[in-house]
Write a structure and sequence with these properties.
There is one protein chain. This protein has about 80 residues and is mostly helical. It has a domain of about 35 residues. Helix content is about 70%, strand content about 0%. It is elongated, with a radius of gyration of 18 Å. The mean pLDDT is about 85.
């Protein structure tokens, strides 16, 4: 596995872990304090998964590095 792939996977799972944690907190703890705040936190948690997918699929490379050439063996 390439370093880029490992980094993207790590960022994806980090964001998904944050999202899951926010959902759990909203459903168990925050709703006891304020149902409105729980709804806001759950709403934020709902926005994170699509953002996590975009981040995981983005390929980061330095500006001075040319794009990788296609691998003829890769089909």
């Amino acid at each position: 596995m390439h370093d880029d792939t490992a980094g993207r996977r790590r960022r994806y799972f980090t964001l998904m872990g944050i999202s899951l944690s926010l959902f759990i907190l909203a459903a168990t703890v925050i709703r006891l304090v304020s149902p409105t705040l729980a709804a806001v936190v759950a709403g934020v948690a709902m926005v994170i998964p699509p953002f996590a997918a975009v981040v995981a699929n983005a390929r980061w490379r330095p500006e001075d590095q040319p794009p990788p050439s296609p691998d003829p063996d890769d089909k």
